[in-house]
């Protein structure tokens, strides 16, 4: 028999920690053994050199399985690590522009924004005003609208463009994967 001490209360109860009169027992081969008293289920598990693990505590009576608890915890941790590898953390990437940006520079910056959106990251479009340019914020709004139109096939605006002192900011988030797949040719599906 394996004696296991459990540190967290969220883990499954094992062996002597199961404090109910009767449990539904599933064998180590996956077969239904039936409803037994906890003493009898523990004796059965000890006979096989395994543990009695509570797998469904909310069921009536609780469901317990005869298994190697150490192996069970190892498999659970392995699955959790594998799931963590697959998840994508969304980052906020920034693309800075000026109101008097040249065409080539504009296309270059929009290309980067398109790559970021394709990687499923959010993009913060920033137009910075210097000196007296701040008096012509309409040029900045036009540039933001133009950029949003250029990125319409891969992204949508999260909020409306807002002015923060000498800068104009818009956050663009990637379109859902299905919407991008449906509209591969230039028509935007909103």
- CATH-level-2 architecture of the largest domain: 2-Layer Sandwich
Mean pLDDT, all residues: 85
Major sheet attributes: 5 strands, mixed
Number of strands: 9
N-to-C SSE series?
A: EEHEEHEHEHEEEH
Describe the model.
This protein is of the alpha+beta class and 190 residues long. It folds into two domains: 15-83, Translation initiation factor 3 (IF-3), N-terminal domain (Ubiquitin-like (UB roll)); 92-182, Translation Initiation Factor IF3, CATH 3.30.110.10. The protein has helices spanning 38-47, 69-86, 103-118, 137-150, 177-182, and strands at residues 22-26, 32-37, 51-56, 63-67, 92-97, 122-128, 155-157, 162-164, 167-174. The strands form two sheets. Strands 5, 6, 7, 8 and 9 form a five-stranded mixed β-sheet that branches. A hairpin with a 2-residue loop joins strand 8 (162-164) and strand 9 (167-174). The longest helix is centred in the middle third of the chain and has 18 residues, at 69-86. The radius of gyration is 30 Å and the shape is rod-shaped. Residues 3-9 and 186-190 have low confidence and may be disordered.
Key features of this structure:
190 residues, alpha+beta, Ubiquitin-like (UB roll), Translation Initiation Factor IF3, 2 domains, five-stranded mixed beta sheet, 9 strands, 34% helix, 26% strand, disordered C terminus
């Amino acid at each position: 028999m394996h004696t296991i001490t459990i540190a967290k209360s969220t883990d499954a109860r094992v062996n002597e920690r199961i404090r109910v009169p009767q449990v539904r027992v599933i064998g180590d081969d996956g077969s239904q053994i039936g409803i037994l008293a906890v003493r009898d289920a523990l004796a059965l598990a000890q006979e096989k050199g395994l543990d009695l693990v509570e797998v469904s505590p909310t069921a009536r009576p609780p469901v317990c399985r005869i298994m190697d608890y150490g192996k069970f915890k190892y498999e659970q941790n392995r699955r959790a690590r594998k799931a963590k590898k697959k998840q994508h953390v969304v980052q906020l990437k920034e693309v800075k522009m000026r109101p008097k940006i040249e065409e080539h520079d504009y296309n270059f910056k929009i290309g980067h924004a398109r790559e970021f959106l394709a990687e499923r990251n959010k993009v913060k479009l920033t137009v910075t005003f210097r000196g007296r340019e701040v008096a012509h914020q309409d040029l900045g709004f036009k540039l933001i609208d133009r950029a949003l139109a250029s990125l319409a096939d891969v992204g949508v605006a999260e909020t409306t463009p807002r002015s923060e002192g000498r800068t104009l900011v818009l956050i663009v988030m990637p379109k859902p994967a299905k919407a991008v797949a449906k509209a591969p040719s230039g028509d935007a599906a909103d």
